[in-house]
Amino acid sequence: MNFDEIIKTNKNNIQNIIKLITRSENEDLEQEVYIKLWKNADKYEERGSLKSWIGTIAKNTSKDYLKSAVVRYENDSTSDEYVVTSIKDKKATPEDNVVALERRKKIIKAIDGLKPKLKETIMLCEIQGFTYEEAAKKLKCPIGTVKSRIYNAKKELAEVLSDLL
Fold this sequence. Notes:
The chain is mainly alpha-helical. The protein contains 8 helices and no strands. Helix 1 packs across helix 2, helix 2 packs across helix 3 (50-77) and helix 6 (116-127) packs across helix 8 (143-160). The radius of gyration is 33 Å and the shape is elongated.
């Protein structure tokens, strides 16, 4: 086998395979393919075409590279430092509790300030989890009315609670 001729003939094919699989041009990977071709030249049997044999080596080398790149990334991203810095303290501070309580009070006050029909509809659908159809049956009104009331209630609440949004 004349390796210079093999490289010249198959260079574009190897580069295209590497680029297709790894989504980037990688000269180091290309060199690795050439080394594997040279080391395994005695294993080539002339049953299939030389081009497909070289293509298989390029594909396998590219896939192996991706596997090792994923492993390297996973090892880097789960290092002890990363894990320690990414752990968040889930305990609420007293300040968080006070802010959350004040927020709830404002929301309750805003809902209480709605017109009775809007308040009743928003309570059914958004607080108690009724579907629009269920709320329409309970309120004995068309589903369109329920949707309209929800829209108007949310619009009013958004205006009143704009400082929380």
